[in-house]
Amino acid sequence: MGLLILQVLKWILWIILCLLLGIVVLSLLVLLVPVRYRIEGEYHEKAEDISGRVSWLLSSVQFSFVYQKGLKKRFRLFGITLYDSDRPQKASRKKRKSRKAFGNRIADPNREAAKEEEANSERKDLRKEAVSDEADSIEKPELSKSDSMAEEPVKAFTGLSGRTKGGLESLWNKGKEIWQKLQNLIHQLKLLWKSCGNKVELVKHYRDIWQRESTQVTWQKARKRIGWALKPTLPRKWLLTGNIGFDDPSLTGQLMAGMGILYPIHGGHLQIIPDFERSHLEVKGYAKGKIVLCVVLYHLLILILDKNCMAFLKWILQGTARDNQKENEDNNMQEVTHDRQ
Q: Is 9 helix (H, G, I), strand (E, B) or coil?
């Protein structure tokens, strides 16, 4: 018995160890294996086409989309399509039940025949009632003109009175709703008007803090770290080609001059052919790159663990908490004074 318990515990420990190893391996894959992306696009006067793909772990996890007069999406896992917007979605349970009921109706002709017989009998009953009503109208004596004239205004008055009552009630309710909305709007405008002075003071306060040396040092460090974190995520290869022309040829020339000035930035990745004779726009391009999560997290952790940055974040959080507390206290005081009045 003791050996059996030891073996069970051994297998349980092995299972826990395998689960932990799986979690560690999966987390390392997520951190170290890059997420690759590619975007392609084409635009001209007749149509526009944009497509993209995001893949991870040798395209074992892949998400792609295409935009051509509508967005189409697809998600694959190890080559198996789990989601495709082009495929018809599975019908819900209610739709399935309705389809089954419709099929049963078609499959059962006796039920349809019984329904037709019931409809015919109802029609016969209606005809009999119409004939009896005609006979009663013939037997009744005709009313004099004076009696008919006396009854008509009474009927009209009763109908109008009911309609006017309903209309007046609906108008009253709508007026109440509009008045309540106006009161809420006026109250919000009053609060904004009262808080304008406080906001100006807060802006001055934050401007003074921004001009401090410690905040400038933290901002420079944060700017560098954020730049280092975003640099690997930017597209490594990209190209934009096209043919552009405006109605005014001088504008086309100014555009080409600006592109020439910006050549050190784009480094030949922009290849635009000018068209000085007509207004024309045709662009085609692509961009691809990768995102390594561990690099981004590394720079963000260093930034968060910095002393100046931590002090700055604590100060901001404490300041927002104080502002919220003051606003709550002011609102409570206003409610108390309003109740007393």
A: helix
